[in-house]
Amino acid sequence: MKSSSPVILIVGAGPVGVTAALEPARRGIASRIIDNNAPSPIHESRALAVNQRTMDLLAPSGVSALIDAEAIKLRQMQVYSGEKRILTIELGADARDEAFLRSLPQGRTERILAGRLAKFNVAPEWGVAFDGFAEPRGSRPAAKLNGPKGAEEFPADLVIGADGSHSLVRRSLGLEFTGESLPETFHIADIVYDRDIGRDHAQARFQNPGVIAC
Predict the structure, then answer these.
(1) 161 phi and psi angles, rounded to 5 deg
(2) Alpha-carbon distance 173 to 154, whole Å?
(3) Edge-to-edge strand order for the sheet containing 72-74?
(4) 124-161, pLDDT tens digit by residue?
(5) 77, 72, 97, 101: which is closest to 87 by C-alpha?
(6) For the chain, which terminal residue's Cβ has fewer other Cβ atoms within 10 angstroms, N or C?
(7) Rounded CA gap, 202 and 75, in Å?
(8) Per-residue DSSP letters for the chain?
(9) How, if at all, do strands 211-213 and 201-206 pair?
(10) Higher confidence at residue 183 or residue 51?
(11) How confident is the model at residue 181 (pLDDT cuts 50, 70, 90)?
């Protein structure tokens, strides 16, 4: 893909970061996208919910159709108190009957997004760390990067921090996190069932204490 101005650096190559690179790429603007980590493991679900608003946003790039072809479509959320069902929420009750929740492991979502991005000759650089900002070069911020090829300073017109709730980009700029966090501990597990189960709904079972969602 032919480079054009502005020069964009995206820190974080999860679903948000790759989407942030894909949208300018569709308009002829290349980005450099880096991540200090490796891609999400394909065998772990991690984040797995894709809602209809996300599908609407990803539709112009063609990603929505690819997600739709693979995802499990959840049409109900069933809420239990112990073993008693107390509430059923229909997830497809809009005019298009498409507002159900889609379930797809984060690793697959990332690879679908990266596959579309690759068509514009842009690919995430894995194992490249963002180490803050150097002295500006003119009007451009210069990001300090460190990867397999060593340390470098990369001047950019725009730096997008897609590096999570503990964003180093945000902290390097002295910006506060204005949202809210919940001081809770929770666990995610991938379970293999020994029998067939219904795949068209999700469940939340409130115990005493805690809740189990599956």
Answers:
(1) -90, 100
(2) 16
(3) 49-50, 101-103, 72-74
(4) 999 999 999 997 767 778 999 999 999 999 999 999 99
(5) 77
(6) C
(7) 8
(8) ----SSPEEEE--SHHHHHHHHHHHHTT--EEEEESSPPPPTT--SS-EE-HHHHHHHGGGTHHHHHHHHSEEE-EEEEEETTEEEEEEES--STTS--PEEE--HHHHHHHHHHHHHTTT---EET-EEEEEEEEETTEEEEEEEETTEEEEEE-SEEEE-S-TT-HHHHHTT----S--------------SS----SEEEEEE-SS-EEE-
(9) antiparallel
(10) 51
(11) confident
Total count of residues recorded for the chain? 214
Take residue 119 and report the two structure tokens written for it: 């068509």
**Residue 13 · residue 35 · CB < 8 Å:** yes
